[in-house]
Amino acid sequence: MKQVFFAVLSAATILLAAQGAKAQTNLQVFYDLGSDRQCVTTTLEGFYNDNWGNTFFFVDHDYPVSKDQNDHINGTYWEIARCFNFWQDSPLNFLSLQLEYNGGAYRGYDIKHAYLAGLDFFLHSADFRNTFNFKFLYKYIANGQKNVPLQFTFVWGMQDLFGLKGLRFSGFADFWGEKHTLFADHKGAISPTESSFVFISEPQLWYNVGQHFGVQNLNIGGELELSYDFGSSKGFWARPCLGVKWVF
Description:
mainly beta
């Protein structure tokens, strides 16, 4: 657990140093309750608006908690997306052009580089408490095989859910085409099986508990990872996580 503490401390130090910029940044720390995971994950996430559009990124690190696992980070993954919108004062301000990169490594296996480009459609309520993004993206996976080189993404954020101040429901859902091999199901190892599509969604629920004692930055909650044929796991999986989030 020492690695987790120092990783969180280092990330917090870096973020505090960056407070001079107008940044919306948060650090999430999860304990994964999935029977095939049982690890701690830190997520460093940022979203930034400017006159040309917006930038979003996140970086995940997985840390083992079992004595049977290696004494180092098990996996790392990151995404960065840039939406270009030079026409923010026009009737088409809801439409952006998006470029994105994904990549990483998990338990010694490289996650193939993925490059995406396409359109982002932004919708929101009148008070901007509820926001929705629909993305239609061409997806190129390095050395990857695919039936349909497209990804469809839905991103949402709902603030003060059910009228409860500080309760936020957010997340994303991705669906894309990719030929890949599955090696395990809920019963364990299986004969290698081919799949052509991937689905993953991570709905999150956070409550701003810090508002009750003068620390608006502190949130508690978690997420539920829902997936189908994601990674090397066959079929549908639901992996719950408990977490804390600090908003900088």
